[in-house]
């Protein structure tokens, strides 16, 4: 949550709304906001922090862990039509990769604006996309070169 808060301006530039949802009470959110997050981001988290009373949202989205009584670290990319385009769920000890989240949002926005194109793994804005068709079958390697970040 705090890394997303630090990078929130990047999400705003993409026109993305962010919501934080947890089973923690609004009182826990208030203390965390005032004692922790305000030190990382001036003013604390700049988007809504919602209390998932009874873990109903977590159960609906499949991230509620009954044994621990908390929602796992889940993130969902939901398009403007309300369709879930991507899901990532991690256990509590491992954080998420915000750069990858932003890259995925950019890719989903690109393919929404360019029907018939596909963004390969690792795609970044300005890089080539794929135009799936029968002639491309078995020849993707000729069009797309895998790039690894170091």
Write a structural description.
With 150 residues, this protein is α+β, with helices and mostly antiparallel strands. Helices cover 34% and strands 15% of the residues. It has helices at residues 2-6, 8-13, 26-40, 56-60, 98-113, 140-143; strands at 20-22, 49-51, 64-65, 70-71, 73-78, 84-90.
Quick one: CATH class of the largest domain? Alpha Beta
Named CATH architecture of the largest domain:
3-Layer(aba) Sandwich
Structural class label: alpha+beta
Uncertain regions spanning at least 5 consecutive residues: none
Could you tell me the CATH topology label of the largest domain. Answer: Glutaredoxin
Mean pLDDT: 87
Overall spatial form? elongated
* Proportion in β-strands: 15-25%
Report helical residue fraction. Answer: 25-40%
Taking all Cα atoms into account, the compactness measure Rg is 18 Å
Q: Count every helix, treating DSSP H or I runs of 4 or more residues as helices.
A: 6
CATH superfamily of the largest domain: Glutaredoxin
Oligomeric state: single chain
Number of E strands: 6
Order of helices and strands: HHEHEHEEEEHH
């Amino acid at each position: 949550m705090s890394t997303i808060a630090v990078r929130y301006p990047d999400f705003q530039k993409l026109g993305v709304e962010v919501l934080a949802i947890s089973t923690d009470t609004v009182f826990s959110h208030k203390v965390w906001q005032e004692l922790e997050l305000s030190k990382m981001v001036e003013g604390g988290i700049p988007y809504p922090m919602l209390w998932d009373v009874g873990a109903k949202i977590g159960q609906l989205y499949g991230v509620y862990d009954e044994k621990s009584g908390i929602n796992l670290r889940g993130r969902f990319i939901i398009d403007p039509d309300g369709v879930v385009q991507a899901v990532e769920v991690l256990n509590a000890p491992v954080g998420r990769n915000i750069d990858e989240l932003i890259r995925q949002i950019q890719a989903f926005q690109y393919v929404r604006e360019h029907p018939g194109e596909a963004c390969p793994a690792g795609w970044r804005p300005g890089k080539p996309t794929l135009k799936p068709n029968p002639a491309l079958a078995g020849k993707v390697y000729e069009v797309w070169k895998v790039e690894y970040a170091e």
